[in-house]
Automatic annotation (TrEMBL):
This is TRAP dicarboxylate transporter. It is a multi-pass membrane protein. The chain crosses the membrane at residues 6-33, 54-74, 94-113, 134-162, 174-193, 214-236, 242-261, 315-345, 352-372, 401-422. Keywords: Cell inner membrane, Cell membrane, Membrane, Transmembrane, Transmembrane helix. One of its GO terms (cellular component) is plasma membrane.
Amino acid sequence: MAFLPVIIVFLLYFSGIPIAYALFASSLFYFGVLNTGSPTDLILQKFITSTQSFPLLAIPFFVMAGSIMNYAGISTKLMSFADVLTGHLPGGLAQVNVLLSMLMGGVSGSANADAAMQCKMLVPEMEKRGYSKGFSAAITAASSAVTPVIPPGINLIVYALIAGVSVGKIFMAGYMPGIFMAICLMITVNIISKKRHYAPSREKRASAREIGHQAIDSIWALLFPFGIILGLRIGLFTPSEAGAVAVLYCIVIGAFVYKNLRPAHIPLVLRETIEGTSTVVLIIVAANVFGYYMSWERIPQMLTELLLGITQNKYVMLMIINVLLLVLGMFLEGGAALIILAPLLVPVVKGLGVDLVHFGLVCIVNIMIGGLTPPFGSMMFTCCSITGCELTTFVKECIPFIIALLVALLIVTYVPILTMFIPNLLY
């Protein structure tokens, strides 16, 4: 009976109920029917107090900053910069696609936002230049998996709140894994493009002068992530305050430097911010109530004892957890998987001496791969719906990129210095 609310969550989720409502409904069922010893208003109080968290302010600020940058033309500047760097390689536009996602990681932090933007901006141009629709949609979805790994990814903030680790440290930890994922994808694009004779988007490599000229033209977009790193490192602002600074920066650059931001964009930005924030925060507070039930029934402790009974070798345990997350990632949306599973798995790996910042990146890279796989991959559905690509074609074309990302996941898992180098250097 103690596990009945967990079963209810999955039944409701697979029947089409949003994960936030599924979590809240199962928690109310537990405290209203199975465990009547707790006052009902205590649960509602827990729901409300879950929102009273200062670090949560980072989420609406960074969502708003990403939205403003799209309207301000920052993404166009980043695409031009990506083109001069990688356009001469085989599969030029596909290489630009990957590099742009990496650069967008410092801007939007949202895989679906990045996937939607590139489906509208790059995929039509790729098709005009002879790339198949399936390949174009697949590389767009795969490259968008890099975006949330590079700060200020929303999942980085969510995990930091769940695991009780420093948001600044996990921000710094995201850079190297994100860059390595992009490198793996670019190597895969290179191999496929040579076989299919996908031409570069540029006739020759850009000269140092041309790269420098484009870097100057895109300087305000490129300074954004470096400004966040510097401000966090010297203690100029907290991660939440960094979000507010980011919004102000985007408004100034969009309105007065690039002059693309108009008053007419304000309602659109506000609507996108409210939609993006409300979805994430509602899931977080519902998950906190659900976590209250799990703590009451000692489920994290039970799972810890179960997994530690299988093995106490941390490397074997990390492999077991990776397989578990990959399988569940095929059925759960990434954010939902992180919110449900992280509170259960953190005590297990902590007991084995695994650094929680490192483990956070392992989880996030893993669930991003889940966003590419059926039946519930969010980036898969985003790209297929916008491009009109058949689901079966997409999955077939995406397999090489999934393999590349799995290689990146293994390296991130078993070479922790890749993740921890920058946090150890700066902290």
